[in-house]
Write a structure and sequence with these properties.
Blueprint: H1 5-25, E1 33-37, H2 44-58, E2 66-70, H3 77-84, E3 92-97, H4 98-106, E4 117-127, E5 129-133, H5 141-150, E6 156-159, H6 165-177, E7 182-185, H7 189-197, E8 203-204, H8 208-216, E9 220-225, E10 250-258, H9 263-278, H10 280-288, E11 292-296, H11 298-311, H12 313-318
Length: about 325
């Protein structure tokens, strides 16, 4: 290398380093933040994302607009793929339901594993319930199972997707009880609940929170829940565990960014989300909707997703997904 070219290249290197430092030193957020949701408006993840952004606005935690964008389709794959494609962009945040997210992550044909994202925070777990219309002939979980055994694959459950938590709960119930069901999918848990209310589908295994208004109004009945202990708001409803079935599951609620975002930006968003989680507004909402509240920051959430991903493999293989 000539002596005359060395100072030039050195200057270019210093300039590049300076530009990179300037980029990372920009205040965050520096433009509107897009919160992406994989279900239609009204679904559990949509309600969750909109509440979090509302709290951010009320508490004046951010100076930039927060825009919730619904990108339903493909059991979450449409939204997950969109956010994956935003690599390096800290102004794109994905609200996730861990059921759909982890199932997509376990599929080797999709390349949507946690390594393609930056986990930020886990807020809570939203329990599933076995729910029927208030006028249903099924008064207990046992009655539903006994009827399903008499007529295999004749009774239908409403779920949000073929790979979501409601579907996984149904699959685990089938494994534990020996009963066989059919299922029909909807783009949001709220739509699945309305299908039960309208008498189009006998029951649903979606989130209790999505049916809570109808449960309070005595329009729907919960036969069993998937929590470890009975839910305080439903003291007379048994858990599947106490009925003798090893089914404990719920829809985890959390947020991720695309991979490759600046660490400073990810840390800033994690801190903002933690402030939301500590707010009185979140606490009240969590209690009202019977969430199993639990905060996990980025490091713990990353470990959790990796461990849970492995546990979804059996489900993926059983339904014939994940093969390239």
């Amino acid at each position: 290398m000539s002596a005359s070219r060395f100072p030039y290249r050195l200057a270019v290197a210093f300039l590049a380093a300076g530009l990179a430092a300037a980029v990372f030193a920009q205040p965050y957020p520096s433009k509107p933040i897009e919160f992406v949701v994989h279900v239609n408006p009204g679904g559990g993840t949509d309600v969750f994302a909109r509440l979090v952004t509302e709290i951010m606005n009320r508490e004046k935690l951010v100076s930039q607009p927060l825009v919730v964008q619904n990108r339903p389709g493909g059991s979450g794959v449409v939204a997950f793929t969109y956010v994956k494609g935003k690599r390096g962009d800290p102004h794109t945040v994905l609200a996730i339901a861990t059921g759909s997210f982890l199932t997509a992550a376990a599929r080797t044909d999709l390349e949507l594993g946690p390594e393609h994202f930056t986990p930020l925070a886990f807020f809570a777990r939203d329990p599933q319930g076995v729910m029927v219309h208030a006028d249903s002939k099924y008064k207990t979980f046992k009655e539903l199972i006994d009827d399903a055994k008499r007529q295999p694959e004749a009774i239908v459950s409403a779920v949000t997707s073929a790979t979501g938590t409601g579907r996984i709960a149904l699959w685990r119930i089938e494994r534990e009880t020996g009963a066989k069901f059919k299922f029909v999918t909807f783009k949001a848990g709220s739509e699945a609940v309305l299908a039960v209310l309208g008498g189009h589908v006998p029951f649903s295994t979606e989130n209790v929170s999505e049916a809570w208004a109808h449960i309070e109004a005595n329009k729907m009945r919960v036969l069993a829940v998937t929590t470890e202990k009975r839910m305080p708001a439903l003291p007379d409803v048994p858990t599947l565990s106490e009925l003798g079935y090893k089914v404990q599951i719920g829809t985890g609620r959390g947020f991720v960014m695309p991979a490759g975002v600046p660490k400073e930006a990810a840390a800033a968003m994690e801190a903002l989300l933690e402030k939301v989680h500590k707010s009185a507004l979140w606490r009240d909402y969590s209690q009202k909707n019977m969430y199993e509240d639990r905060w996990m920051g980025s490091a713990e959430f990353t470990k959790y997703l990796a461990e849970e991903r492995a546990g979804r493999q059996e489900f993926i293989e059983s339904i014939g997904l994940g093969k390239k």
